[in-house]
Amino acid sequence: MHKPMDLMRDITESDPKIAELIQKELGRIREGVELIPSENFVSKAVLQAMGSVFTNKYSEGYPQKRYYGGQEFVDIMEDLAIERAKKLFGCEHVNVQPYSGSPANMAVFFALLNPGDHYMGLDLVAGGHLTHGSPVNFSGRLFNVHPYTVDKKTHLLDMDSIRKQAKETNPKMILTGLTAYPRKIDFKEFQEICDEVGAYHFSDISHISGLCATGVHESPVPFADVVTTTTHKTLRGPRGAIIMCKKEDRYKNKYHPEGKKDLASLIDFNVFPGIQGGPHDHVNAAKAVAFEEALQPNFKEYAKQIVKNAKALADELMKLGVSLVTNGTDNHLMVIDLSKKNLTGKGKEIQMVLDAANIHTNKNTIPFEPGSPFNPSGIRLGTPAVTTRGMKESEMKVIAKGIATVVDHYQDAQRIAKIKTEIKELCRGFPLYPGLGILQ
Ligand code: DSN
Questions:
Q1: Which of 163, 252, 325, 426 fits a 20 to 30 Å CA distance from 97?
Q2: How much is the pTM?
Q3: Domains of the chain (ranges plus CATH)?
Q4: 241-245/333-337 β-pairing
């Protein structure tokens, strides 16, 4: 006789192998410092929403316009997520359904451009993103990218040369945003350039959205046509993304004269049914929780502390003789230039040794990379996760000392072991998810 599935078995009983891995991952993050700038630690409330029964639902469509029944609670939840995101960023329209940053960006490309259209995006090696025009990505394969880069000497964005390039190439869209550029972006000046050449301004603020939402970094939302962000970086929400845009298509007559759609409908249509199927309702519920958290006054303090910690980490590293791309940071991230220590192409090795010392980072290209993407010459560091943990400027000094020691003595196993002990000791003072087991 068929017995119903016992839905209430604990994972430790039903799948001890996966349970053990979750437990080990919890141990790993508790005992190490997380410096990958795109990572963060979400609250228990966000974890609970993600682990909720909303994971079972199919809801193709949008609130009050769905293809399946049983949407009375999903609709309220998605409307709440929309309302909170609008309040947080001050945007006219928002789509909260993108699964992550890449599909969000893909929806924007499909909404604004036709295959073969010309656009400008920041070169990956100079701090852009895969979806900003990399030749191996849809953004470089389907569309004609004119990558802009940073100044050869200062490694800063040179707005005069970007303006000149825009006038020469006449792009239909200019993409702004970063994954490894450690300085402020002048979104207003980018907007002026877009206006001068008649291009859409599409800004991907995935890395800095927590800083933009709180005024710690200028936000492009008030003027850019479309803005995307992932929700899991400085915003400290679940893995996912949103797309914000103006309601009206200011280039409708020039670029979309045939259709009746405004910009908001164009974006929505290109998310679903254009690219995605059913939204991940459990993740969207967690996005709503994260937006509410980011609307609280203490989130602004958090965002300010991220930047203070980044500056403290950068200053101390430089004091200890470690060179940084652009000699510092204005935001949450920095990139160590290993080539200045005669360690060109050693990013992968140094990342592995830092891991062994419980300092988690990622290898990264530096501008005009002399190595290769697999063996680059940079290490990217960021402070969102350690700041969530409560660490401040004095802890950044301890971490900087550990990193500098690893860089200078990466072949010295004894020293690395000593740093690991010191990092574990530091982490003990900042308990992560105290009391959290495998189940939330
Ligand atoms: N992988 C992300 C980052 O680390 O910046 C971007 O998608």
A1: 252
A2: 0.97
A3: 53-294 (3.40.640.10), 306-428 (3.90.1150.10)
A4: unpaired
